[in-house]
Amino acid sequence: MDTLGGAEFAPTSTYLNTSGCGLLPRRTVEAVKRLAEEIADGRPEGAGSFASVEAARASFARLTGVSAERVAVGGSVAVHVALIAASLPSGAEVVSPEGEFSSVVTPFAVRGDLKVRYVPLDGIAAAVRPGTALVALSAVQSADGRIADLPAVRASAAAHGARVLLDASQAAGWLPLDAGAYDYTVTAAFKYLLCPRGASFLTVTEDAQESLVPAHAGWFAAEDLEGSSYGPVEEFARTARRYDEPPAFLAYHGAEQSLALLEEIGVGAVHAHNTALAARFRAGLTELGHAPVTGDSGIVAVPGLGGRQPELTRAGIVVSARAGNLRASFHLYNTVADVDRALDALSD
Q1: Which of 64, 73, 144, 286 makes the best surface tag, with the fewest CB within 10 Å?
Q2: pLDDT class for 251, splitting at 50, 70, 90?
Q3: What angle is formed at CA 230 by the lines to CA 226 and CA 232, rounded to 5 degrees?
Q4: What CA–CA distance (Å, rounded) separates 323 from 195?
Q5: Mean pLDDT value of segment 103-127
Q6: C-alpha 294: how far from its chain's center?
């Protein structure tokens, strides 16, 4: 099985750690270098391009099945989640999976006046009850790659009048996703979306926008950018752009290129590629006597094997150790040879 990225990637290691950080395509590296050189030279265009930010916003929207008017740009998932946490009334109940990634749950926990309840991932749909305000979870769990039962969560939340916040950081780019099916989605783009760190996306439904205050709004969130440089912003953007953070232009110049590449390849093709490699790895691990987490995720975790991560690193095989698990994550630049190299290393 060949890579899907062609000449865009040339890793010098067996890189199986996209869940930690995705590799940058060559076109992305060139875009970042180009802007950095313009800034260093003092050229007028060196400030950064709003067109690149809008192109990245539009690409992300198409990749996740929503209109660009529902997408806000920013720099981190934690800031997006904190904005949502700030909008909840005192005493509101938030339900999340046990062991959820800290950026998804900490903004709710630190408020001190919310009821945050943690339940097993496979029981989260059943845990939603009358009075639950929000269900906050990742589409794909960071520690072990499990895919949440999202249809069940959506159905249960709808039945009880709760909203859903979905972190798509470990999913967007390889797992087909309809962001419009959730009140909010947050996505760190430096993983499977292959963007530089500093690019992150928030989606908000029109209904959820009615109660979400643009608490960190500045000039960039104004409807009229040219006329809103000084004094309080008088009119916020009529779209989700009102929730924009001022963008890190170097990151977004790169994001424009990375997201365009993913559009060219297609998430469906990436999904088929990644899951086929993951299935081969699971089968090989089982033959070696290991017991990987079951499922059809493109991320494979092996409980209790995290201690072998350093030796794999020394062998030029980059994986993660998370919560005691050895975690290997496959993406469009990986091949069958990468899988077999990792299995050979684990057979010693």
Answers
A1: 286
A2: very high
A3: 105
A4: 26
A5: 97
A6: 22
Question: C-alpha distances in angstroms, 255 versus 57, 199, 304?
Answer: 9, 7, 36
Structure tokens at 156: 């249960």
User: Alpha-carbon distance 142 to 151, whole Å?
Assistant: 19
Q: What number of residues does the chain have?
A: 348
Number of H helices, E strands in the chain: 11, 12
Residue 344: phi and psi, rounded to 5, are -60, -40
> What's the pLDDT tens digit per position in 287-342?
999 999 999 999 999 999 999 999 999 999 999 999 999 999 999 999 999 999 99
Which contacts (CB < 8 Å, 24+ apart) does range 317-323 have?
A: 317/13, 317/14, 317/16, 317/341, 317/342, 317/345, 318/13, 318/14, 318/15, 318/16, 318/17, 319/16, 319/17, 320/17, 320/19, 320/20, 322/142, 322/143, 322/144, 323/99, 323/143, 323/144
Nearest Cα to Cα of residue 270 among 329, 333, 327, 200? 333
Give CA–CA dist 279/304, Å, rounded.
Answer: 20
Question: Could you tell me which of 138, 289, 258, 135 has the C-alpha nearest to residue 196?
Answer: 258
What lies within 8 Å, CB to CB, of 105 at 6+ separation is 96, 116, 118, 136
Helix runs in the chain, H state only: 26-41, 50-64, 77-86, 102-109, 124-127, 150-160, 206-209, 249-265, 267-287, 309-314, 336-347
CA distance 70 to 204: 5
Nearest alpha-carbon partner for 267 in 138, 150, 175, 139: 175
The C-alpha angle 140, 144, 150, rounded to 5 degrees, equals 25
Question: What pLDDT does 300 receive?
Answer: 98
